[in-house]
Amino acid sequence: MRSLKSHISFIIPLFVLLFSLQFSFMLNRAVKSYETGLVDDYSIVVVSKDDINASDLKIKIPYISSIIEIKKDKYISRLKNDISRADLTYLKATLPKFYSIKLIKLPTDKELKIISDDIKRYKGIKKVETFKQTFNKFHQFLNFAKNASNLFAVFIFFISLLLILKQMEIWTLEHQNRMYVMGLFGAPYWMKSASLYKSVVIDALISAILVGLLFYFMPDFIDIDKIKSDLTLDLNNFRFFSDTFRLILSSLIISVISVTITILRQKD
């Protein structure tokens, strides 16, 4: 019973640590996916009195992915029943040119201002519409949530790590006499510590697999598809094999380093 309690005392903080890291990683992945989709949908509209040389503007502003002229004909044709042919021809001749500019990535507020200012300096540009307020609000909220999640994950990491190290100290003290006797008989370091390493490796595997299973079955209990439909944010991005492997690797590294540090401290 005492041994089971000791193992649970180690598994729980490690489970919480891995859970917070995986949740933060998945949220970052969802935000990145959302930003990729937003880049595809987002464009800057430019009004120019002259033709824009796309190649020249791309050289001046490396952020630009593509420049497409917005054809005026289909919009002007809607007025053909309301105004005369002569006025229609005059309107077509005097209207400025409109361009849609796509970017290679989603810019920050600072980058967007620089891009806008650079475009305005290009010859013939009369107006630049970035639609900043339209696309930026939800994205700002997502960035805030992502940063808060990362900060919380760091906080949980250190708290859990302290609990893990404390449990390692308890285990080391429980095995201290046995390790001392083995040391008197000339047992190498790995042999004296084998029992501890075996325990932490088993518990590390249990913690990582539990976290992996929790995230794998989470969509069965939470309507993630509705979140994706309402917010266009895909939180159902857990990749069972690759993510679980990373959890196992992280769990083993954290556990082995923790027990090694504790044993060396006790030795000193």
Textual characterization of the structure:
With 268 residues, this protein is α+β, with helices and mostly antiparallel strands. It folds into two domains: 2-37 and 137-267, no CATH class; 43-130, 2-Layer Sandwich (Alpha-Beta Plaits). 71% of the residues lie in helices and 9% in strands. It contains eleven helices and four strands. It has helices at 2-41, 54-60, 73-76, 85-94, 109-120, 132-174, 176-184, 189-192, 194-217, 224-231, 240-267; strands at residues 44-48, 64-70, 97-103, 125-129. Strands 2-3-1-4 form a four-stranded antiparallel beta sheet, covered by helices on one side. Helix 9 (194-217) packs antiparallel against helix 11. The longest helix is centred in the middle third of the chain and has 43 residues, at 132-174. It is elongated. The model has no long low-confidence stretch (mean pLDDT 80).
